[in-house]
Design a protein that fits this description.
Length: 191
């Protein structure tokens, strides 16, 4: 044997690079692929979260609109109840006018004083009505105009003629304005 050392012939196989670990399995995925997968999953999670937030907000907006609609119905019902008191006062005043007309034979003779003497439960005036217990009265040869202010802010009209009574509503709450009433009944309730 000889003390010489020889490197021998180079191998024909694959040489290892400096960046590759010594025992890297061939089926192992590179680090870039894992980072890309994490990025895709993160973006997907953000899209799902955004869809959930949008759905929740859309649901809450619908619920809020439904509550507001319910509250408006309650307000309308309260207004209708307040109008009922004014209608009752107006109906009593119409009966009083019809009775006085039957007794005297003249619509022009129906005055606030005559109505107060006949039906003392309410206040009668030639001025504007300001509440459901005050009736504004205007007389003419063709009829008597009655106006009653509802607590809802609606003024209800009745025009009592010799043969028929017509109804209406408006913002000016005087018997004069009520002389132009032409509807066949009190204003209907909103549905």
């Amino acid at each position: 044997m000889d003390d010489s050392f020889s490197f021998g012939t180079p191998s024909k196989g694959r040489t290892r690079s400096y960046n590759e670990p010594e025992h890297t399995p061939k089926h192992a995925r590179p680090a870039r692929s894992i980072e890309r997968s994490r990025l895709v999953l993160g973006v997907g999670a953000l899209v799902v979260a955004a869809a959930l937030v949008w759905g929740f907000l859309h649901f809450m907006a619908g619920a809020g609109n439904e509550i507001a609609s319910d509250q408006q119905r309650v307000v309308d019902q309260i207004g209708n109840v307040q109008d009922v008191q004014a209608q009752l006062t107006g109906t009593q005043a119409i009966r009083a006018v019809q009775t006085l007309y039957a007794q005297d034979g003249s619509l022009g003779a129906v005055t606030p004083q005559a109505l107060k003497a006949f039906e003392p439960a309410f206040t009668y005036t030639t001025s504007a009505s300001t509440d459901p217990n005050t009736v504004s009265v205007a007389s003419s040869s063709s009829g008597v105009g009655l106006a009653v202010m509802s607590a809802s802010g609606t003024c209800l009209y009745a025009h009592v003629g010799a043969t028929a009574t017509t109804y209406g509503s408006g913002s000016t709450c005087t018997g004069e304005a009520a002389l132009d009433a032409s509807a066949p009944a009190w204003p209907s309730e909103p549905t």
